[in-house]
Amino acid sequence: MARKLNTTVHVADDNGTMHVFGPGDEVPGWAEKKITNPDVWEGDSGDDAVTFSDPGNSGPASVEMTEGEDTRPTAKEAGSAPASDAPAKSTRQRSGR
User: How far is it, in rounded angstroms, from Cα 8 to Cα 97?
Assistant: First the structure.
């Protein structure tokens, strides 16, 4: 019996072409081997880790995130000032009409 997906996934083949598979689709063996997130399979209960696959590489990339982990850069790291909650002041002047 073939495994069934519980969500939509994007998988790169060996040539780097992306393929989309979802619930109800028959997943070919080559793609099943590349889907490394156990949470996308029906009935599987994996941990909260998510692994991303690099289309230019036949194996998983070295990127692993845990659900809820905030990996966004800080304002300092991004090279910008923090956003303000105050509304922006307009510098536009009204014409004398």
Answer: 57
Q: Is 78 helix (H, G, I), strand (E, B) or coil?
A: helix
**Structure token digits, residue 45:** 């209960």
**Could you read off the pLDDT of 40-84 as tens digits, one per residue?**
999 855 554 455 555 555 554 444 555 555 666 666 666 655 555
- Residue 83 inside a domain? The answer is no
Asked, for residue 17, whether it belongs to a domain, the answer is yes
pLDDT of 4? 93
Query: Rounded distance, CA 20 to CA 18, Å?
Result: 7
The token pair at 51 is 């692994």
| Helix or strand run (H / E) with residue 51 | strand 49-53
pLDDT at 8 over 50: yes
- H-type alpha helices, 12-60: 29-34
- State the pairing for strand pair 9-12/49-53: unpaired
